[in-house]
Amino acid sequence: MAALLRSARLLKFTPSGLLQITGTKRNGLPLSRLYSGTLGIRRTGVCSRHIGPAVENAPSRLSPYTVGCVRNYAVAREQKDEASSGVQSKQAQQFDSALSKLDNSVRRTGRITKTMLLRVFHDICRTGYPSGNQALLLLRSCGSLLPEVPPVDRTELAHHIWTKLQELGSQYDVSHYNAILKVYLQNEFKFSPTDFLAKMEAANILPNRVTYQRLIAAYCQNGDIEGASTILGFMKSKDLPITEAVFNALVTGHARAGDIDSSKNILTVMRNAGIEPGADTYVSLLTAFAEKGDIDGVKKALEEAENADCSLMDRDIMQVIFALAKAGHQQYVPEMVERLRHERSYIPDAMNLCLSLITHGQEDVAFQVLKNFPTLQMDNASAESYNLGNFFLRHCVNMNTALDKVANYCRDLQQSNLHTSPFNFTLLCALEAKNIGLSCGLMKQMKEQNLPVRPHFFWPLLIQLVKDNNTTGVVELVKTMEELGVAIDTPTLSNYILPAFGSLEEARQALKDAGVSVESEGFLISEIRSLAANDLAMLYTQLSDASLPSLDFSVFRARLIVGFRKSSDVESMVKITELLFKSERFHGQSTTSAERGGYFLYSLIDSMTEAEVQVQKDKLREYFKQLQALNITIPVNIYRGIRNLLDSYNVPELIKDVAELIDPKDKASAELSMTGPRATQVTEDKVETLENKLAELKAENKSIDLTLKQIIQALCAEENLQRALELKQQHEEHMTAGGYAILINHCCRNDNAEEALNLKREMSRKDSSVALDASKYIALMKVFANSGKVEEAVDILKEMKEKDVMLNDTHTTMLFHALSSAAAKGGPTIIRRLQDTVFALGLAKPSANLCSPLITAYLDSNDLSGALDAALECQKRYNHLPRIHDILVGLVQQGDTELLQKAMDVVSQERGEMTMLYDLFFAFLQTGRYREARKIIETPGLRARPGRLHWYAEKCIAHNQMETLEHMVDMTAKLFECDRDEMYSYMLRLCKETNNWKKADALWTKMQEENIIPRERTLRLLADILRSNGQEVPFEVPESWYEQAAAPQQVKSTPTPATSEDGPDYHIRVLALCKRGKAKEAYEMVKGADEKGLVFGPASYDHLIRALLAEGSMDDAMALKDIAGSHIPGFKMSDTATNLLIVTQSKKDLVTDAVQTLKSMLQVNHVPSQLAITRLVQALGRKGDVSGIEDVQKLMKGLSTPLNFSSMLFINNIALAHIKNDDLDSAVELLETLYTNPDNHSASMSFVFRKILENGNDKVLDKFSVMAERLANHFACYRPASDLFLQLLDMDKVEDAKFMLARCNAVAEQKDILLSFMAQKSQTPGQLGKIQSLLSLIPDFAEEDVVYSYLIKCHVVDRNLPAAEALMEQMQKEGVEVDELSLKRLAVLYRKEGQTVPFPEPPESFKFYADKLREKASKAPATAEE
Questions:
Q1: pLDDT band at 290 (very low <50, low <70, confident <90, very high)
Q2: What number of other Cβ atoms are within 10 A of residue 218's Cβ?
Q3: Mean pLDDT, to the nearest integer, of 266-277?
Q4: CA-derived radius of gyration, the chain
Q5: Engineering a disulfide at 1297: which of 242, 1213, 1288, 1358 sits with its beta carbon 3.0 to 4.6 angstroms away?
Q6: What is the pTM of this model?
C-alpha cells in the first residue's frame, strides 16, 4: 500500500479540501438545516448488477426491485464491540427496524426521503452505541437513493453522518471506506484518491479489491487515465482480478479524457481477456457517446448491443437520457424516450429519473419523460390515476422553479389529461412551502384560466404573515386578493387578517390607506360577532335596526352561543331569539326561520356542560317561558334532540319547559301516536320487531324476560309510557327488576310520582330483596318530595340504608340537586325532614353543600329568622354555617339589628371574632353601606385574610360590581398585611373584562400614590388593557426591575445631628409624599428646605433616596446624597438604598459605576442583596464584559456571609457575554466543560436559551442546539436539550419543540425536569395551553393522577370552574382518584365563584396535603425498588 501511495503521489494530484473524514473539526450542517434543506436526487434504485461502470459512475444502473436489494446492507462484516450483550441485542433490533423502514421504501418507490433517513439516523444516535452495520446502512443511503436532494447536499450529509457516528464510538473498517467511496462516485464528488488512501493508512485500514476498483472509477470519472493505470498496475502486481467493473470504468475514463476510440477499443480488450461485454459495459459506452452528443454513436452502440444479444432495460435507456440532458444535448432525448418499452418497473424508475432531472435543473426533459407515462392511456382510470404528475409539480415547487415554467407545465398537463387539476395542486404545494410570490403568481394564472380562486387559498400565507407580525405583507396580500377579484369573506377577515392588527379600527384604517375597500359585509359581520360574544343588548340594537342588511345567521351563531352561555341578560336573549325565529333577514332560502331558530336552541344546550345547565337552570327556565309567551314554536325533532340532552343532564323540569315550545299540531300528533310522520322510523321498526319476537317466544313457551325488558326500554325512549305499562300489565309475571327500574326511572324523569310509587310497591311485592342503584333511589326521593309525598320520600331513604346502597361523590351531588329542587317546591319543613333523615341514617356526611338547601328554602320564603336559626342549628349539630353571607346580607337589608347581633355573636363564638368582622364587612359592602363597612375594616388589630378578600373580590368580578370592588380596595388601604398589588390586580381584571381603560389608567395613578411596587403580572395586565385600546403604556413591560429591592427594609439609624434648624413637620411631609409615590415633589421640598438651612435626619434622607431610585431618578438621588453629606459628616446610604443604586445603574447599563458601587459597599463590610448582584451580572452579560463578570464572581466568593446564588448565574451570563462578542466557540466550550462533569448534569441553562430565542439569532441557536444534542448523545447529559425543548414550548414554538424532541428522544424520559416545568406553569394564569402542548408531545411521561392534579390547578388558577368540573367528570370515568390537595383547591374555587361545594371539603390546610403528597412521592421510588 505504501508503494501505491508513493506512485500515486508522483501524479501530483492536488488534494481536495472537500474530503473530510476524520481528524477535522467539521461536523456538517446543523441538523435543523439538514431537515429544512430542499429535497432532490438524481438516481434510482439501490442494487446494481454488481459490476459495471454504472456502479462506479453517476448516474448508475440501479434496480429498486432486484431481490434483496437493500438486504446487501446486511453483509457488512461484524465489528468487535465492547458494549454489553444487552446493548448488542438492542443494536440488532434497531438495525432490523431501521433496515425494514428503508427497505420498504426502496421496494415501493425506488428511493428514500431525506426526512426518513434522518429519522433513522437520530434513532440510531439516541442509544449512544451505533454499530458498524448501522453506520454502513446510513452511509450507503447518502447516494443515489436520495434523488430529491442535490448531490452536494448528499455528500455533506454523508460527511456529517461519518463524523457523528465516529464521535459516538462507531468502529470503521474497509467496508465503510468503500461505502463512502461509492457515495462520492454516485454524487460525482471530486476528491483526492491519494489523500483517501492516506486516510485509510492512518487508520490502519488496508484497502481491498473493491477499494482499488472504486479508486480507478474515481480517476476515470475525472478523465485521469494515468492515475487509473497506476492503480491498475498495482492491482496486477498483487494478482488482484481485473473484473468487468474495471473495464467499464476505463470506458468512461477514456471517453472523458477525449479519446472515444480508446473507449470503443476497451470492448475488444475485454473479449481478448476472455470477458464478454455485458449490459453494464454497453451502458457505459452509450453514456460516453451521450455525453459527447454523438447520437449516431449511441444508435450504433445500441445496434451492437442488440446484435450481441445483450438486452437493455428501460432503466438503462434512462441513464442515457440523463446523460444527454445533463450534457446539454436535450434535442436527442425524444429519440431515446421512444425506445422506452414501459416495463413493469417503469413507473418508479421514471419517477426517480424525473426527480433527478429536476434536481439538476432539467425540468423540460423531465416533463418529456412524464408525458410518456403509460397509465395515461388507461380508459377506465379513476380520477386519482390522472394525478400522476403530483410528484413532478411538488418537486418543481421545492426546487423553486420559475413561475412561467410551472404554469406552462400545468397547462400542458391539463391539456394532455395527465392531471385533472394541476394548478390547484401546484398552488397547494406552493402554499405549504409558504412561497408567497409563486402562490400569488399561480393564482393569477388560474384567474386567466377561468379557474376559481377562493379566499381560503390565501389563509396559509396570511397565517405566516400574521405570525411574523408583517402587517405590510398582510395589506399587500389583501390588495392582491382584490386585484384577483377575490371577495374577502368573513372567516378570512376575522381569523386571518384582523389578528394582524391591534383593533378593528386599526385594520380598517390600514386597509383604507392602502386603497382597499372596507365597506364590506365582512367588517360588519366581524362587529356583529364581537357584540354577540360580549354585549347582547347592543347586539339586539344592531340586529333590530331596519337599515342592517341581511346576514347569514351561521356566520355569528357560534359567537352568539358563547354570549348566551355567559350572559345573565335573559331579556336580551329572548329578544334576539325572537328575531331569529321571526325575521327572514338572518336565514338563507334552504331552511325556514323556525327551523333555523330551533337548531340554534339545540346547539345552545348541546354546547353547555351538565354543570353549566345545573347552575343556569333558573335562567334557562325563565328563557324558555318567555319564548313560550311570545308563541315561539320548535319542530318535534328539535325538541327530541334537546330532550335527550337535558335528560342526560338530569334536569327533567327543563324538559317540560322545552316541551311547551312544540307546535300544538305536532305536539298532539306526537302524544297520540308514535307512528305519526314525525316518529323515528328506526325505533318504530325496533319495537315492532321486538313485539313479534316476544310473540314467537311466548308461542314456543320460551323465556320472554329479556325481550320484554328491551321493548319497555325502547318504548320509554320514545316517551310511550302508556304502551309500556300495558305490556307490563299483560306480562306481569315475566317482569324483572331491570324492567321495573326502567319504568320507574322514566316516571321520575317526567315527575309522574303516582305511577312511580305504584311501580315501586309492585316491584317490592314481587321481590323485597331487590335494590335499585343509588341514582334511581335519589330520583324517587326527589319526585316524591316535589309532589308532597314526604313519608314516601323518607321511606326511600330508609330503604337505601337497609339495603346498604353506597353513595359516591356523584350521588352526593345528585342528592344536593334533589334537595335543592325540593326546597323550591316543598318548603323548609320537607327539606328539614329529608336532611335529618339523610344525616341520621349516615347516607352522606354533613357538609355545607348538603345543608344549604334548607337555608335556601327559608331565604326563598323570605324567612330570615328561620334561615338564621337553621344555619345556627347546622353549626351546632354539624359544624357548618351554610349560606351565612346571604343571611347576613338579608338581615342588613331589612335592618334587623337584633337578629344581626345574634348571628354575629354565634359566628364570633364559633369561628372567632375576626371571621365575624369579615362576614359583617362583606355584608355591608354587598348592601352598599360603605360607611359601616369602613368602620368594620378599620377595627384596631384586624389584619388581612387573603383568602376571604380573594373570595369576595372574585364574587364582585363575576357579577361586574366595579363600585363595590373599588370601595373594598380603597377601604383596605391601611389594613395590616394587606397585599395592595393583589387588591389592585382584582380591579384591573374587572377593567379588562369590561374594557374600561380609563378606569385602569386611573388605578395606575392611585397605585403610584400608594407607592405600590406592582408585580410583573400586574404590569402586564395593565399594559394589555392600555395597548388593546391604543393607549401608550407609561412604563416598561414586563420587567419590574426594582420589585424585590424596593421592599421596605429596616434602616440602621444613626445619631441625628443636634441642630436648631431641624423641622419635624418637613420630615413627616417628606415621608408622606414618599409613601404616596410623589418622590419628585418630596425632593423639591427637601431642596427648598436645604436653601432655608433646614437639616433632616439621615433616615429621612435615606428614605427619599430610596423612593427616587425606585422611580429610576438616579441623578436626583445622587444629588440628594450630596446634600445629606454636606450636612451630616460621614453620611452613608443604607444597604437597601445602595442595593437599589446598583440595580438602577445596572438597568441603565452603567456597569462600571455599578461595579464601583458594589466594591465600595463591600469595603465597609456590607452585604449586597441577591437581586442587586443578579441584575449587575446580567447587565455585564448584556454588555459582553466577561472579565467584569469574573471579577464580581471573585468578590462574591470572598463574602463572609455567602449569598444563595444559583450555581449557573455567572456561567450563564459569561456564556451570553461570549455570544454578545460573537465568540460562540468560547461560549460552547465553557458550557461543554461544565456539563461533561457528571456532577453538573442537573445545572440549568434555560436562561441562555431564553435570551437566544428572544433575540431570534438562528446562527447562535443552531450552534447551541448542536451542542445540546452532542451532550445528550455523547455524555448522557440531557439537561441542556431538555432546557431548549421546554423554552421552545414556553415561547409557543410547538413545531420547533416537536422537531427538537424528534432529534433527541431522551428528553421525553427526563421526568423530573418535565414535572418541574408543569408545576411552574400551573402556578400562573393562562398557561394551560403550554402544559397541554407538552402533554400532546410527551403524553406518558408522568402518572395520570399527577398530570390531572396539575391540570386541575391550572383551572383553579384560571378560575375556570366549568373546565375543572369537566375534568373531574373525566377523572371519575377513567377511575382516577382525585387527591385531597386538588379537592381542597376545587372547594376554594367553588366558594370564590359563590357556589356551594358539591363534595366534602378536606378539613386540613393546603400545606398539610401538599406535604402529604410529597411524602407519598418520596416513598414511591423506594417501593419500586423493593
A1: very high
A2: 27
A3: 89
A4: 42
A5: 1288
A6: 0.43
